[in-house]
Amino acid sequence: MAATPSHRPSRRQLLGSGLAALAALPATARGAERRPRVAFLGTVVHEHSHSQHFLDRLAIGHAWRGAWHKPRVEVAGLYVDQFPDWPRKDLARSRAAKYGLTLAPSVEQALTLGTGKLAVDGVVIIAEHGEYPRTATGQTRYPRYRWFKECVRAFEAAGRAVPVFMDKHLSTTWPECLEMVADARRLGFPLHAGSSLPVTLREPAIDLALDTPLVESVCVAYGGPDSYDFHALETAQCMSERRKGGEAGVVAVQALRREKLWDALAAPERQVTRELVVAALARSHNLPVDGGYPTAPVSFAWAREACRDSIGYLVEHADGFRTTVLMAPIRDFNYAGRRADTGETVSCQMVLPMPTWGASTADFFTPLVRHIEEMVVTGKAPYPVERTLLTSGMVVAGVESLTSAGRRVETPQMRIAYRANPESTFWQP
Fold first, then answer.
1. Is residue 106 part of a domain?
2. Do 263 and 409 share a domain, yes or no?
3. Is residue 43 a contact partner of residue 132, using CB atoms and an 8 Å limit?
4. Which helix (H) or strand (E) holds 216?
5. Which of 163, 249, 379, 428 could form a disulfide with 318 if both were Cys (CB 3.0 to 4.6 A apart)?
6. What is the pLDDT of residues 163-195, one digit of tens each?
7. Is there a single domain that holds both residue 212 and residue 139?
8. Buried b (16+ CB within 10 A) or exposed e, 324-360
């Protein structure tokens, strides 16, 4: 008998039943051998959004070393939080149809596939883009922490946990970041998080051996707070963590704008910082001058004038190491570090092959997707989550400093030491 309007199944019921039917199908009925299944949680899917780049690669694969790489995992659960058609067209529904996926009505349904119990082997959280509230310091409250806690509750209910990938920083408060890492340790699941910058191509293709005697790191990049500051900090940290003795933790962060920044960098004790700023800028392909090339040698005085509107984060580590990040009027990410043993400056550009309108590739996402697959398949995170825990904390302290007119923010809670592993290098597949 046809359902009357008052008895029609809800959207949640329809979507949930579709997911349950999919989960019940044998692997052969889904057209492929059994691969580890992942739940994909995204805030919004539009052209060039992070969710679009990750979802496409995990669903159909990507180019890799002269061949097409088929995914080693299967996107089984798909939850998307927002479906706006402005300012960019929503692609969530069309992508779901294209890939034969059912949009789940909730995070829980994406993890259980409508079965009422955990039914996936991994979770991918891409909470970037979309309309969300902001904190008093200007950070966007994407639902990273909230979705992660929903995953934790599902793991606790199931009595088992699966690997989780978290795009970009962990959350917008230090206690939440710390809690997320503690949850992963308590339940024993690998947590992989962070930026694509540490694993993209480098020009030149340098890497630092473990226990390299570095004394300072600088990244000169573009963007601003609560977005690209995180990418710049990860660019520096993936190098800094390989220094002799490993990472010792962070004890203070100060963020400065314009003349206050350049005055701080001009201090006598900042000679090495100034040299590294110049070295990093010299790696840029688009310096802020007419024609992209200066008419005089790049120097600190030149940089101060050409990049006077920059924002900088000055980070002090527990072992005396320094990290300086400049967000300047350029269009690339450039690293420079100083060796204590030889006095040599090591530098490179983190290459970002950007998409163009009408083309959806952004090749720097590809190595990160491969790391996600590897973690789900092997059950091992490619590098310590403490990297992203500290860089998340640096962002929190940095935006706090900016909103308090450049006050130095002491961070004794961030005295977290860790060591990088040999596999946490950019070129690993």
1. yes
2. yes
3. yes
4. strand 214-221
5. 249
6. 999 999 999 999 999 999 999 999 999 999 999
7. no
8. bbbbbebbbbbbbbbbeeeeebbbbbbbbeeeeeeee
